[in-house]
Design goal:
It contains 13 helices and 13 strands. It folds into 2 domains: 2-113 and 339-439, no CATH class; 144-296. By secondary structure, it is of the alpha/beta class. The two termini are 27 Å apart.
């Protein structure tokens, strides 16, 4: 998203400001006026500003007019078609909120869309690790990080396989337990069946003559034989029950028979030997990759570096740009570590704004004289770098520095930069700016 025009209504006074899609330098504005402009620009995107009208262009090229007259209803018009699209930007409380449309609240907007010297120094201190990694050879840095990540993934895959093997071990124990129980039951059944045949035959052989002499004594003899046969049948049922449990366990293992299971176990033991060798090799590779990473970057975590990959690469490009400027110009100033840190923090902040809104919508950056304490020659180098990076997102630089204004006058001739020098009236009635004080803006 980019600002095209800002119009502030204050009674009978109207303040109008047009913006370049890449970089606009608003020069000759003191601290109070800068604070007021920041409040109006950011507040105009929110839901609470009255009398602040904006013309915007979103990342799809759609041109919008945000109309908030001091009297009358607020609305948002799509300029290309003249369609009222207010409902698209209406918040739950009924107010029009451009920032809310992209998932950005007022506090986030103040922190991200506005940057002054103090905030820039804070970011520079916070991004010390980014700067340190940007000084390294980027090819070596990311190839080493990739090797650590690859070996970590391989170690994780092996760990998952090991956990699966542990689960298989429980199934193996169940199969072996059931098979051992089956073998014992079969042996008991064979022995009992043999003994039952002998007992049954003997009882029948004895019962025949006893039944002739004393029939009542033959009954107990026959009962003993029948009981032996019944016991044999019961043991046979136990054998079949144990067989069913074994078959169930074998089915869980994906085999049909115990012989097939044994063959599979032999193959698995051979595979385990190979897997063990592979685990040792991967562990050694990971140890070597981690050691190389530690020797290269120190205590910075690989995951953190990968998460900040874009910022580190941007900082590395910035360092190359600074080095190039020193080489192509014999009068280019020497960039010290502090200035380099400020530049890196600024470029990183621009990178975050490129996809700040939901759906990856970019938001403009409003700079409040961030280079006030930098040497004049170095300041111009940094402004030049800013001009190269501006456009995505749009940058609006508010300044009271004469050398920046002089630089902008020359750059404006190329059409790549716009210079605005509004008249600031110290006699005008200050416009109330609750978000950040008041500014004296008038034409």
């Amino acid at each position: 998203m980019q600002y095209s025009r800002l119009v502030i209504e204050e009674g009978t006074t109207t303040f109008s400001l047009s913006f370049h899609p890449r970089l606009t330098v608003v020069a000759g504005v003191d601290s109070g006026a800068r604070k007021g402009l920041v409040a109006e620009l950011i507040g105009g995107l929110g839901s609470t500003r009255t009398g602040v009208n904006l013309e915007l262009a979103d990342d799809r090229g759609r041109r919008l007019a945000v109309l908030r007259p001091a009297s009358g209803g607020h609305r948002i018009i799509e300029l290309n078609s003249g369609t009222d699209v207010s409902d698209e930007f209406r918040a739950t409380d009924g107010r029009l909120d451009v920032l809310g449309r992209y998932g950005i609240d007022a506090r986030t907007a103040r922190d991200r869309l506005h940057l002054d010297r103090t905030m820039l120094e804070r970011d520079a201190r916070r991004d010390e690790r980014v700067q340190r990694l940007s000084e390294l050879d980027q090819t070596e840095l990311w190839s080493t990080a990739a090797r650590v990540r690859i070996t970590e993934d391989e170690m994780q895959a092996i760990s998952d396989e090991h956990r699966a093997s542990a689960e298989d071990a429980e199934l193996v124990a169940r199969i072996e337990r059931h098979h051992q129980g089956l073998e014992e039951a079969v042996e008991q059944h064979k022995a009992l069946r043999r003994d039952a045949s002998l007992v049954c035959g003997a009882s029948l052989f004895a019962a025949v003559p006893v039944s002739v002499v004393r029939p009542e004594l033959a009954v107990p003899i026959l009962v003993i034989g029948m009981a032996t046969i019944l016991l044999a049948f019961m043991l046979r049922a136990r054998v079949e029950a144990v067989q069913r449990m074994e078959q169930s366990a074998l089915a869980d293992a994906g085999v049909d028979s115990y012989l097939g299971y044994v063959v599979g176990r032999v193959d698995q033991m051979m595979d385990d030997t190979e897997a063990r060798r592979r685990r040792l090799a991967v562990a050694e590779d990971h140890r070597a990759a981690a050691l190389r990473w530690t020797n290269l970057v120190g205590d910075v975590n690989v995951e953190w570096a990968l998460a900040h990959h874009e910022e580190i690469e941007t900082a590395a490009r910035l360092r190359r740009d600074l080095a190039t400027l020193s080489q192509v110009s014999s009068t280019a100033p020497e960039i010290d570590d502090l200035t380099s840190s400020l530049a890196q923090a600024l470029i990183a902040h621009l990178g975050r704004l490129r996809t700040l809104g939901s759906g990856g919508e970019s938001l403009p950056l409003i700079l409040d004289d961030p280079f006030t304490e930098v040497a004049p020659s170095t300041k111009l180098t940094l402004v030049e770098l800013l001009a190269r990076s501006a456009g995505s997102p749009q940058v609006i630089l508010l300044t009271d520095q004469d050398e920046v204004a002089t630089w902008a006058r020359l750059e404006a001739l190329t059409g790549e930069v716009a210079l605005v020098e509004p008249a600031i009236s110290t006699q005008a009635t200050p416009r109330s700016t609750p978000a950040s004080g008041s500014g004296n803006l008038a034409v």
